[in-house]
Specification:
Chain lengths: 244, 351
């Protein structure tokens, strides 16, 4: 059984049909890329999975639970984590506190009030910051980080929740080629314990890290399959050569 | 690589921040010292001791608003509702049940404030969709206005005249009358509330509130039940306002419709913004400044008729040109918001 099953999902914004009967299966332990021209519905689909938008029709089943109408809070509790397209770090809090805030989210209210997990979580926060090369900036305000560093902080925060499924919306947006390469290397190790859905315009990046791809065009699934099959697909080549 | 250069610059900035001196503890210490000395310095001026006691009591209302807005981003224009209803509750208990024991009535007032604000929170904050700031502001304002109107026409609670001759607050056989004893009772209660609010702000829960204030949608995606946290803080703030209302009622010997209306509710907003929201001590200083200024201006013969206009202009100037309040001149945003992590082992600020 797939970790995520999307069946017939549609979403309309006023007169714009952003998603039109989308079917996608995402297997556990894979890196799954969503690609397509601008306005094809990639980010809308990601937001429908995360709960930022509710689908007008269709169902989304995650890990055996129907989450079609679940709130973002409920989805997060089931193990779903999102990195926003536009960085949504908390700029007035320190880098350390941003990660602590994410990591402590499963603590009960009394434990939060008594700060009983603060000391215990210190090592975990430091390890994540170390991994994402942010340990030297731990005490800086998140708003002072460069764009690339904010993207890494976002990914660190999303991973801090120990998700079963991580949704990344354009994780390398605005990054230099070196930073993009470094981001790919940072993501590789999570494959052992986390499934990934990634929306990205950089097709080289997608090709390098994804196992499977779903190609969207005008809100519909144009094609899906493993990376090599998609690269050979005439339908996909036509869309990317004519509209990208 | 650019990021390495940025990291190095950032690390040095972090170093500076770590060593930056914190101002708030000094302001808190100085305020406590002044509060301890004031009643003795005022000597025989009982009117000024009464004014100082009023400042302490109204500070509870200001802290109540700061818990909502300064810490959690809930814009409440109705904190006086919980203040006034609790004040009425203990006045009625005194009148109808002949009971005014401190250990019974003050917890009762807190319970009244907590339950009533909890009901408002359930209606205003716990819907399926997160409410907008304007919806909450108008909802609380309407509640405050409606309660004032309701009480103004209700004979059982004295209608427009309110309830006067409120029974004196008792501890055993001892009765608290206006004066230095009541001052120190109010000071002890304010200190306890302040310590509790400071503990909350510096805790991991305080970090959740600080995050919520900046981007509540982001916190929902972390798995926090943001509206539930808001409802909890709003109820706690209502409890603090209720405690203040009870003390006010006992101290003044009177409670009236105006003590739960939009007038006092917006005054609480002004106390907080004038002093500096989100700092806890700022709203107390704001209360003292506004009340003392009102007292001084109203006592000057030359401006006897227009002093409220002058006061209004002063308040307007502060809110317009110093939106972070008078404490904003001394306290950085970083210190106001606080830091919760343990990387700065030299001195974690904890809010």
């Amino acid at each position: 059984m797939a970790l995520l099953e999307i069946r017939g999902v549609s979403k309309t914004f006023r007169i714009l049909r952003a998603l039109d009967g989308v079917d996608v299966d995402v297997q556990a332990g894979t890196f799954h890329g969503l690609i397509g021209p601008n306005g094809s519905g990639k980010s809308t689909l990601l937001k429908a999975i995360a709960g930022a938008h509710f689908a007008d029709a269709g169902t989304i089943v995650f890990d055996g639970n129907d989450i079609t109408r679940a709130t973002p809070y409920e989805r997060a509790r089931l193990g779903l984590s999102l990195k926003f397209q536009i960085t949504a770090v908390l700029p007035e809090l320190s880098v350390y506190d941003n990660v602590l805030l994410a990591i402590q989210s499963t603590a009960s209210l009394p434990r939060l009030l008594l700060s009983s997990t603060r000391r215990a979580l210190d090592g975990e926060v430091a390890a994540l910051l170390e991994r994402f090369k942010l340990i030297d900036r731990a005490d800086d305000l998140a708003g002072e980080l460069s764009h690339g560093e904010q993207q890494w902080l976002e990914i660190a925060m999303a991973l801090a929740l120990k998700p079963k499924l991580l949704l990344l919306d354009e994780p390398t947006g605005g990054m230099s080629p070196e930073e993009r390469h470094a981001t790919g290397r940072l993501l590789e190790p999570i494959k052992t314990h986390c499934t990934l859905i990634i929306v990205e315009h950089d097709l080289h990046f997608i090709r390098d890290i994804c196992d499977r791809l779903t190609v969207l065009d005008q809100g519909k699934v144009l094609d899906q399959g493993d990376v090599e099959a998609i690269q050979r697909s005439p339908k996909v080549q036509q869309v990317f050569t004519t509209r990208v | 690589m650019l990021t390495e250069v940025a990291s190095a610059a950032g690390a040095s900035r972090a170093g500076r921040l770590r060593t930056a001196r914190r101002v708030l503890p000094y302001v808190e210490g100085a305020s406590l010292l002044v509060a301890l000395v004031v009643p003795f310095a005022l000597g025989e001026r009982t009117d000024l001791v009464t004014l100082a006691t009023n400042v302490l009591i109204l500070s509870l209302l200001a802290i109540s608003f700061d818990l909502c807005w300064g810490l959690s981003g809930i814009m409440s224009f109705g904190q006086a509702l919980f203040f006034g209803v609790a004040g009425y509750a203990i006045a009625l208990v005194g009148r109808d049940l002949e009971f005014s024991q401190l250990l019974g009535t003050l917890p009762l007032a807190m319970l009244v404030g907590f339950v009533l604000s909890g009901l408002f929170a359930a209606f205003l904050l716990l819907g399926r969709k997160p409410p907008t700031t304007i919806f909450v502001a108008l909802g609380t304002l309407t509640g405050s206005y409606a309660a004032e109107r309701l009480v103004s026409g209700w004979q059982y609670v004295g209608a427009g005249n309110g309830l006067s001759s409120v029974k004196l607050l008792q501890l055993g056989d001892y009765e608290f009358v206006e004066g230095i004893e009541f001052y120190f009772l109010a000071l002890i209660i304010l200190l306890l509330v302040y310590a509790g609010a400071r503990f909350l702000k510096g805790s991991q829960l305080g970090l959740v509130l600080a995050g919520m204030r900046q981007n509540e949608e982001r916190l929902a995606f972390f798995g926090y039940r943001v509206q539930l946290f808001k409802a909890l803080v709003f109820s706690l703030a209502g409890m603090v306002a209720g405690l203040g209302g009870a003390l006010y009622s006992y101290h003044q010997g009177f409670i009236g419709p105006g003590n739960m209306g939009p007038g006092l509710s917006t005054t609480a907003v002004i106390y907080c913004l004038f002093g500096g929201s989100g700092t806890l001590i700022g709203p107390i200083l704001g209360t003292a400044a506004v009340e003392v200024l009102s007292y001084v201006l109203s006592d000057i013969d030359a401006i006897k008729r227009i002093w409220p206009v002058i006061l209004g202009l002063i308040l307007l100037a502060v809110v317009m040109f110093q939106p972070k309040g008078i404490l904003g001149l001394l306290v950085t945003d970083r210190e106001r918001i606080g830091s919760y992590g343990r990387r700065s082992r030299g001195g974690r600020s904890g809010g």
